[in-house]
Amino acid sequence: MQKQVSFGDANRMKYPEQVVIAIARDANGKDNPITLGWAMQTSIRPPMMAISIGLPRYSHDVFTNAGEFVLAMPSDRQADETLFYGTKSGRDIDKLAAFGAKLQPAAEIDGVLLADAVANFECRKAGELLSGDHTIFVGEVVCAHVNEQELTRLYTVGAGYAMGGLARGG
Questions:
Q1: Among candidates 22, 19, 20, which has minimal Cα distance to 123?
Q2: Is there a contact between 39 and 81 (Cβ–Cβ < 8 Å)?
Q3: HEC letters along 60-72
Q4: Concatenated DSSP letters of 77-95
Q5: Angle at Cα 37 formed by Cα 152 and Cα 44, nearest 5°?
Q6: Which residue, among 139, 121, 137, has the nearest Cα to 129 in the 3D structure?
Q7: pLDDT (tens digit, 9 = 90+) per residue, 20-66?
Q8: Closest Cα to residue 19, out of 142, 167, 163, 139?
Q9: Which domains does the chain have, with CATH numbers?
Q10: Which pTM was predicted?
Q11: Residue 142 DSSP one-character state
């Protein structure tokens, strides 16, 4: 039996939830990561993925002006890094340098990959859609990478919390 509650009360039931790190290069050439909970695959042919970023965020402007981005699926060894990227603004600091992230150059776009992530997807922006107080950015996946090591995917169990998830297959 279901009972009627507020949206907020029902929305808390979504956890655990995936967490991703999206990275786009700003106008000054600085790669700016942002941690997001709202991401999804939207197409198989061609492969496409979407993320949602809040309008007041510095990252919103970066992704609006960028033509490409990386979508990284963090591993549980990146819990502190993931929290850092979600709680600091790229307007104030170079988040990748400040954290000392392990990076690799992207293969098909002008960007970087997170070396400790379970997977990285290089995307060319294919569209944007205003959705209330967020914009949905859609990217066509032009190159995909998986970690050579068997890693555990990171999920969140609520604001400010992270937990490991299911290990990926070898």
A1: 22
A2: no
A3: HHHHHHCCEEEEE
A4: GGHHHHHHHHHS-TTTS-H
A5: 80
A6: 137
A7: 999 999 999 999 999 999 999 999 999 999 999 999 999 999 999 99
A8: 163
A9: 17-162 (2.30.110.10)
A10: 0.92
A11: E
